[in-house]
Structure formats: C-alpha cells, structure tokens
Automatic annotation (TrEMBL):
Residues 1-77 form the PiggyBac transposable element-derived protein domain. The chain crosses the membrane at residues 64-83. PANTHER family: PIGGYBAC TRANSPOSABLE ELEMENT-DERIVED PROTEIN 4. Signal peptide: none annotated. This is PiggyBac transposable element-derived protein 4. Keywords: Membrane, Transmembrane, Transmembrane helix.
Amino acid sequence: MLSNCHEAKYAKVNRTMKNVTREEFECSETIEFYNKIMGGVDLADQVANVYELDRKSCKWWKKVFFRLLMSAVVNSWIAYCGLKHRKTPLLEFIVPLAKALKASGKLNAQYQRRRGTIRPSKTS
C-alpha cells in the first residue's frame, strides 16, 4: 500500500483466528489505519455485491447506475435496521421497495398508452 500521510512503521494488532483465539500480529500503520476507518464501507460493498447485476452486455453507464442504486438501497436498509432495532433480511427489504417504486412510477406516468391505432384520413 502507498500512503503519503503514514510512516513506514509497524504496529501490533490483534486478530481473531478461526478457532476463536486471538493472536497478535505486526502490520504497517497504513493497513491498521485502513482497517480502523474503512470497515463499514467494505461491509456495505460486500452486502451490495450479493444481488449485483453484472452482465457483459450491459452498457457502462447502466452498470454505474445500478451500482449507485444498489448502494443507496443498502444504505437505506442499514438505516432501516438501525431504526427498527432488528435485522431484516436484505431481500425482504428490496422486494417491497421495488414494488412500491413500480407502483409509484405507474401513478406518476405522464403518458398513457393508447388502446388502438387510429390512422389519420387521407383528406386531413
């Protein structure tokens, strides 16, 4: 890792192993700082990748849009779980949200589809 605000010093950190024991390791101050500050962002990215729509045929701007949309959904899910003080599964949060957005889009549609095709007469 490269950093311009940390020196090339090592710090002692505690890590939890798979067998639930804690061991002390040395790592650079840069990595220690990153792990201390960026833990929540990495976790939100990990959750957002569970339902990611990554298609090769998708245009780049669609990928950016859906990535930002999923980040907004995950952030709102985290806030919702914090307010309700209970952990709701992400899928149980996404499905009603998608249905509500779909219903809202139908209500706010400006143009309605015509029921038949009416051709203009030749005289007009």
